[in-house]
Every structure is written in C-alpha cells, then in structure tokens.
Amino acid sequence: MSNDLKYIFSSFKGKEEELIPILQKVQKTKGFLSDDSMEEIARFTKAPMSKVFGVATFYAQFKFKPVGEKHIMCCRGTACHVKGATRIQEEIENQLGIKEGETSGDMKHSLEDVACIGACGLAPCIMINEEVKGRLTPKMVNKLFEEKDRGNQDVK
Ligand code: FES
Predict the structure, then answer these.
(1) Which among 40, 88, 111, 141 is least buried, having the fewest CB atoms inside 10 angstroms?
(2) Ligand 1 center to residue 74 CA distance, Å?
(3) Which of 58, 78, 94 is the last residue of a domain?
(4) CA–CA separation, 103 and 11 (whole Å)
C-alpha cells in the first residue's frame, strides 16, 4: 500500500460508513480513484469491492482517470443551454484543442460536461476546479484561457 493511502487511512476507523469521506480524501490526494486505490479502500473498510465501486460511481464528483491540472466542467444544464453553453463549449474545445472527456497531452487541462452546477443565475457557466466562471461569452473564454496559459491565475 502506498504511503499516501496509509496516511489517509490513519485518520479513519476502517468502517463502511466512512466510504464517502475516504473516497473524497483519496481523490483529493491522488487526483482520481484508481482500481488499486479502490481495492485498498475495500480492504480497509471491509466493504465488498462492488459496494466501493457502486458508491464511487453514484457520485459525479468521483473521477476514475487522471484529470488535468485545470479540470474544466462545462455546464450543460437547461439554463446554461438556453444561454449558449454549446458555443462556450466549442470555444473551449477550440482554444485548448481537446474535446469533451479528454485531457490535454501536457496534463494541463481536462474537459468534462456536467449537469447543472447550481449557479443557474450566472448562466452560461463553467467550473475550473472549484471556481465558477459565469455569464461567459465565447470572447471571455478565449481571454480566460489565453491569460491562464500565460501564467496569470487571477483571471475572473
Ligand atoms: S444550468 Fe448551468 S448552472 Fe444550472
């Protein structure tokens, strides 16, 4: 078992009801949930692998393959759709050279469609890691990633 997992497990009792917080911590540390990590979690919590997998796949927050440094979630909910989410997504895809579900070769960006992210008043919007970017236009998207790629992390 990796030292990362040993460290994470040390703050839990090893019970099945701790599955969600354990999965969250493992993902936060490792960036995604590998099969190996989930097997170790199953062993630690004494839960069947099917249960660990079932819980992890139920929640959209969990990822099963590595994501980019900037994980971009493009909202495809109704409010965002009506306000032009398709054009926003196309602009992101053009700008970064990746399609929905892909990660760039340099692991800097990954793009994923999600249902409503709970910021409908800001439609159309995206999330970059934990941060919501709202009322977007294709022009703003262009600027957002141009400036991010130049290393300016404070673009709002
Ligand atoms: S539909 Fe996009 S935030 Fe709700």
Answers:
(1) 40
(2) 9
(3) 58
(4) 32
Could you tell me if residue 101 is inside a domain?
Answer: yes
116 Cα nearest atom in ligand 1: 4
- Please write down the HEC assignment for all residues of 34-64: CHHHHHHHHHHHCCCHHHHHHHHHHCCCCCC
How far is ligand 1, taken at its centre, from the CA of residue 93, in Å?
Answer: 19
Number of domains in the chain: 2
Tell me which residue range forms the domain holding 23: 3-58
Distance CA 32, CA 112 (A): 14
Q: How far is the CA of 120 from the centre of ligand 1 (A)?
A: 4
Residue 11, burial from CB neighbour count under 10 angstroms (0-12, 13-18, 19+)? exposed
Residue 118 CB partners (closer than 8 Å, separation 6+) = none
Do 123 and 79 meet the contact criterion of CB atoms below 8 Å apart?
A: yes
Pair 80, 53 in one domain? no
Residue 78 Cβ inside 6 Å of ligand 1? The answer reads yes
